[in-house]
Amino acid sequence: MTGERLLQLALRVEQDIFLVRQRGREVAAAVGLEHQDQVRVATALSEVARDLLRAVDGADVTFVLVTDPPSGRSVLRVDLAPVRPLPGGRYEPQSGAVARLVDMLGVVPDGSDTVVRMSRRIPANGQALPPERLAELRAELASSAPGTALDELAAQNAQLIAALDEVRSQRDELEVLNSELQETNRGVMALYNQLTEELEETNRGVVALYAELDEKSAQLRAASESKSRFLANVSHELRAPVTAIIGLGRLLADSASDPLTAEQARQVGLIRSSASDLLDLVNELLDLAKAESGRIEVNRTEVDLRGLFGQLRGTLRALAARPGVELVVEEPPAPATLRSDEVLLAQVLRNLLHNALKFTERGEVRLRAERRDDRWSLSVSDTGVGIPPELQERIFEEFYQVPGTTRVGGTGLGLPYARRLVALLGGTLELTSEPGRGSTFTVLLPLDGA
């Protein structure tokens, strides 16, 4: 960085230290440094001048105003060229705080010699000095008479007093801030203690709630297991007498037995029909109990949907004999295979088709299969009465039937059982329905049965 030389001094005797300090402060003030920076530059100069006077018998001091190319800001630079070479070519200030007073302090080469250089940036809002002002500044500095050591000492004392006043003011402000901080800390600690107590109280309540929930869960599990055992036992005990009633009714209606009157035949038919309904209920209760207890084992094999759909078409054709209702079983797209339990899957689809045929008075019931990436979608749709949105989850509850459909018959156990079987197969059972426009039950199953 090149620049304009402002002033040059000779440092040879102890008296010159005061002169260098005084001139340094004057130059710093002239180029626009703030008061505190003026004191910093003057103090750093006096310390470095004292070190050089003791080590190498003095130096030539040059004040230069330069421009820093990267930032374009003006910089006050002071070069101290030692009278004799520096020991080891290096300079270490006796006071470690000197380097913190300026922006840069170090030794730089200057031809065959070394120069101790320090610099301080001038504030960014300072205006660059025009050449005329630089010339006037050099003339003023050259013509001004230096003060005595006593004058410089008095100025230094005044600066020290001002610094002490500023330190005292800052200390007072710091004490106020400390007292405010302590007060804030007391409030924070009080709030922290209050929050801690509330959190502990909440934790105790949560622990108690969890304990109560665990107890209720254990009771629910025990109740569920008791219900499953009860259903299994009752179903098992009822199956034999109900089967006997059906058998006796068949014997009474047999042509080989004594002939019955028309009224007797009608009553025997009612007994057989009621017994068959009761046997269906017993079987569904037993199946549901087995599903809830986890005693149904899934036997996964390769299932051919075309064969399964053909079997369902043949077994359910008789139920579709109602006039105005058509059973449509679409051919699955090839390759129509998936890994699942064929018996359980057939039971689910048969249940859904049976329900659809039972609740559809006109139109059609359709079974179709669709491949969706790594899943199969098996849907049973009908044109029946439909199910309101608020009841579409309730129909999967045990023993629940949609109001107005009880005349058709049923136990309300088929759909809950079907959903449990689908879950065992690794899939989901979904429903979309709209009152008056029918319903669609969709079974989504993975290809690999996982």
Radius of gyration: 52 Å
Mean pLDDT: 80
Any idea what the shape is? rod-shaped
Question: Percent range for helical residues?
Answer: 40-55%
As laid out across the biggest beta sheet, the strand order is 1-2-3-5-4
Segments where pLDDT lies below 50 for 5+ residues? Answer: none
Report on the biggest sheet.
5 strands, antiparallel
- Give the N-to-C terminal Cα separation: 77 Å
What would you say this structure looks like, in words?
There is one protein chain. With 450 residues, the chain is an alpha+beta fold. The protein has three domains: 3-147, 2-Layer Sandwich (Heat Shock Protein 90); 149-295; 301-446, Heat Shock Protein 90 (2-Layer Sandwich), CATH 3.30.565.10. The protein has helices spanning 14-30, 35-56, 131-143, 149-253, 262-293, 305-316, 342-358, 414-424, and strands spanning 3-11, 59-67, 74-82, 104-110, 113-121, 301-304, 325-329, 337-340, 363-372, 375-382, 428-433, 439-446. It has a five-stranded antiparallel sheet with strand order 1-2-3-5-4. A hairpin with a 2-residue loop joins strand 4 and strand 5. Helix 1 packs antiparallel against helix 2 (35-56) and helix 5 (262-293) runs parallel beside helix 8. The chain is rod-shaped. It starts with a strand and ends with a strand. The model has no long low-confidence stretch (mean pLDDT 80). Residues 150-212 form a coiled coil.
Structure summarized in a few sentences:
51% of the residues lie in helices and 20% in strands.
Please specify the SSE layout and strand pairing:
Blueprint (H helix, E strand, L loop, with lengths): L2 E9 L2 H17 L4 H22 L2 E9 L6 E9 L21 E7 L2 E9 L9 H13 L5 H105 L8 H32 L7 E4 H12 L8 E5 L7 E4 L1 H17 L4 E10 L2 E8 L31 H11 L3 E6 L5 E8 L4
Parallel strand pairs: 7-9
Antiparallel strand pairs: 1-2, 2-3, 3-5, 4-5, 6-8, 9-10, 10-12, 11-12
Helix pairs in contact: 1-2, 4-5, 5-8, 7-8
